[in-house]
Amino acid sequence: MIGQRERRTWAALASVVEPGTPGIRQAVAEHGPGTVLAALREGRWEGGTGSALRRRALSADGSRVLESTRRAGMRFSCPGDDDWPAGLETLDVVGPKDEIGGGPLGLWVGGAADLAELVERSVAVVGARAATAYGTQVAADLAAGLGDRGWTVVSGGAYGIDAAAHRGALAVGSPTVAVLACGADVAYPRGNAGLISRARVEGAVVAELPPGSHPTRMRFLARNRLIAALTRGTVVVEAAARSGALSTLRWAHHLGRQGMAVPGPVTSALSAGTHQALRGETALVTGVGDVLDLVGKLGIDAAPAPRGPGRPWDELPPARLAVLEALPARGLRTVEDVSRRSGVGESDVRVELVELELVGLAEAAPAGWRLGQRARAARSADRHAARAAAEAADGRSIGAVDGGAPPGGA
Amino acid sequence: MRLATCGCVALVGVQGHLVQVEVHIGGMPGFVLVGLPDTALAEARDRVRAAVLCSGEPWPQQRITVNLSPASIPKRGTHFDLPVAVAVLAADGRLPAGVIDGLVLLGELGLDGALRPVRGVLPAVLAAHDAGVRRVVVPAANAGEARLVPDMQVLGATSLAQVVALLRGELLTDCASTGAVDDRAAPVGAPPGPGVAAGCRAATPAACPSTGDGRAVPDLADVIGQGNARRAVEVAAAGHHHLLLTGPPGGGKTMLARRLPGLLPDLRRHEALEVTAIHSLAGILPEDRPLVTRPPFADPHHSASRAAIVGGGSRLVRPGAAACAHRGVLLLDEAPEFGPHVLDCLRQPLEHGEIVVDRAEFSARFPARFLLVLASNPCPCGHHGGSATVCECTPDAVRRYTRRLSGPVRDRVDVTVWVKAPSLVEMRAGTARSESSGDVAIRVAEARERQARRLAGTPWSVNGDVPGPTMRRHFAPQPGSMEPVERFLATGALSARGADRVLRVAWTLADLAGRDRPGRREVLEAHGLRAGLAA
Question: In the beta sheet, which residues pair with residue A153?
């Protein structure tokens, strides 16, 4: 736990330094926050004694910052705190990128939840503000799916994809984290004020800037690195060729996190950026299963495992198996036919057929039923295997045939 | 007395309005009929004069003014003949004073004075009753129908002469319908007298309606095999789910559909009156069975016009097939062959349970809450998707054929089933164990009772009528049993509307099985009945 005095120093420092200023985090790590703050005040940092940074540092007052934070109903979290997300450390390890880099000197957090816990299993879902209906639907479905499986959705609180992602997570009662490029008490954009305040109640609103700060272009870029660093992976749902969402994606790759993108129509300008990204190291995802396959931990988060090497009809109850065996691979059979062939009553056949349809083992056409795609595939694989085995056996048994025909043969 | 008034009823749809027939006699000889009469009514003058003369009464040689009041209601039909004739005689002083006060008369007159049956007697008498009238005179052939109205003294007569005799008190009892045939065969213009009374039969005013089945509905036991389709028909009957039967020609689609009315419960009293009123207007009420107690069945041919289905006509608006199928079954055989605008006009009755025929001067309303059965071949040649014969249609033709049924009408279909001609094996195996309509009807009746109890206090009484959102909100199945539906929804195999249909049918299946609420089994079977396919 960090002492009150040290926290004041961190707060003063964090309120003075522009987010993502390269090098400052290393200096703090080496000399401690107090020394760095003193150096800033004395003008021993870039820009010398006349710089704006020095003027700001001189007027910075940690206790006043903490006081205004408390008044805004938030808390200030800094490196060394229990709820400091471990993922942010990666920012200190990798170098700066596009003149932005280094971990944050502190985070202003709105919301009661433990931030480290919230982002322990989290995925960023980001994308275009001017999203299409397709994009918002995919983002919301994806976020809802992640929420359903206990994953936190992190996004930027912007219009379009970001808002859809937050909304999707909230819709299934799952917490979501909005990382803002302004003060965490400033609802930006204003139109999403309601959404952001809901995220604050049910999850957290996070910013690298003191309360009351306004967003700038550089702050958006710096914010993007936080989104990438906080999460295990970043999914871009829709992004035009020069979208800010792509910078989040690049940061994810830069930090060694999983970069993912959802494809769109090749004719859509709003998917041009994602398609461009998909040609590189970004992985293509189409749904929550794909995402979890990529970001989940082996053995813990694995998607429902494929049913093992057995055939899909292993472990079916006897009546269902009988119904399955009465289905034709080609052509169609009516319920009455299936009932007669399987010896299962018609009303049970009707139920079992739909059970089989649910798992892809049966298919309905207007005029009747047949084997489903999965059953056909498995059956033909069986047949190939059987043929291969038979051929192998033929090769071995030539001598045996000479010795005497097997019973029932020829 | 030179002035007389009696009552009649003008019909607009099944709605009746009491009309006063006023007659004034005086001035130079002539006959004027005023008060919005139509052509058939304007011709009444000639019929009435001949009938009066043939009945042995003198025709007043003065100016006769007949006013039908209120004048604003359009009056249509020939049933004004009798009140006009009687009012003329009363005004001429040929009837005892005051005898026609508060009396409503209906009937068409022949030139010979014979009283001929007319359409719409039941709705007319119902309207008269509502207006406070307690005595009516109707043609004897319509007397049974008129007597369905409780607390009403009905006088049936076969001729104007009889009516006059009745009103003069020369005849103490009215003539019941059984005497009608004999009387009509009797010499025309027979003078009123005791002889006529011999052909009349005393009848209690509140005669019991016939409860007989009349026209025989074919039995489900005749259908061999077709377990799946039989189940679909049973479910449709139990939950009032509209039904689509598809399959190759000769498979038994029509056969099954015709057996559907036999599975429905008897009409309740008020339903029976509604149906009878419509059938009376349509003129399809059998004379011997004045009250329709069994669900009716209508199967218009696919060449039927719009007016034939929804009703029409410029004078007396006749109910169409859809209204005649009220509380019963409307079968559209070869449904895709119906004109698209004809199918479209079923939208209103399917949504609101009534048909409104709008004319320049009035709108006629007919109740039309029917169970719709669509029977369709899968393609123009009928063999697509079957196994016996190869289909000769192009893929595009098949697609276009099935699409003719799409849209609002198909949206209302909850149960879709394929009907295939039974194979030889099925014919041999199935003969012994086919269930009869009676057995199925018992289950259907029980299921309907269960629904009525559950839906008590709502505007609906059957599952098929409950809208999807209400179903979802208030009638949830067992927890977790919708899981298959959610999975089909997720894969796109089912639309949201299809999911509503599955839930509705699942409830009916639970009602048939006597369960409190549907479980996974019912939901699966509902989907299996392809409740969700027609997206």
Answer: A123, A176
Burial class from Cβ neighbours inside 10 Å (0-12, 13-18, 19+) for residue B307 reads middle
Contact B98, B86 (CB under 8 A): no
Cβ proximity of A118 and A177 under 8 Å:
yes
Residue type, A43: G
Of residues B246, B420, B521, nearest to A351 (C-beta): B521
Distance between CA atoms of B77 and B18, rounded to whole angstroms?
14
Give the phi and the psi of residue B232 in degrees, each rounded to 5. -60, -40
Answer yes or no: is pLDDT of A410 > 50. no
Q: What residue has token string 């705190």? A: A81
Strands (E), A130-203: 152-155, 176-183
Which chain B residues contact residue A354 at CB under 8 A?
Answer: 484, 524-525, 527-528
Q: How many percent of chain B have pLDDT more than 90?
A: 31
pLDDT at A261: 96
Q: In 3D, which of A137, A171, A153 has the Cα closest to residue A286?
A: A137
| Confidence check: pLDDT of A122 > 90 | yes
Write the DSSP assignment of A293-315 as a string of letters: HHHSPTTTT--S----SS-TTTT
Instruction: Give phi and psi for A380, each to the nearest 5.
Output: -70, -35
Query: Is 0.95 topped by the overall pTM?
Result: no
Q: Are B252 and B426 in contact (CB under 8 A)?
A: no
Which range among A266-280, B141-155, B170-184, B405-419 shows the weakest confidence by mean pLDDT? B170-184
Task: Note whether A208 and A104 are within 8 A (CB).
Answer: yes
- B69 touches A at CB < 8 Å: no
What average pLDDT does the segment B35-56 reach?
Answer: 84
Residues of B in contact with A355 (CB under 8 A): 484, 524
Q: Would you tell me how many other CB atoms lie within 10 Å of the CB of residue A44?
A: 12
Locate the chain B residue with the closest alpha carbon to A347: B525
DSSP strands (E only) in B294-386: 297-298, 311-312, 318-319, 329-332, 354-358, 363-367, 371-376
Which of A347, A353, A363, A370 has the most B C-beta neighbours within 10 Å, making it the best mutation to test the interface with B? A347
The residues pairing with B109 across neighbouring beta strands, listed in sequence order, are: B115
Q: How many Cα atoms occupy the beta-carbon half-sphere of B467 within 13 Å?
A: 7
Q: A347, B385: Cβ pair inside 8 Å?
A: no
Mean pLDDT confidence for A76-105: 89
Handedness of CA B508, B511, B515, B517 (dihedral sign): positive
Task: Name the band, by pLDDT with cuts 50, 70 and 90, for residue A199.
Answer: very high
ipTM of the complex: 0.70
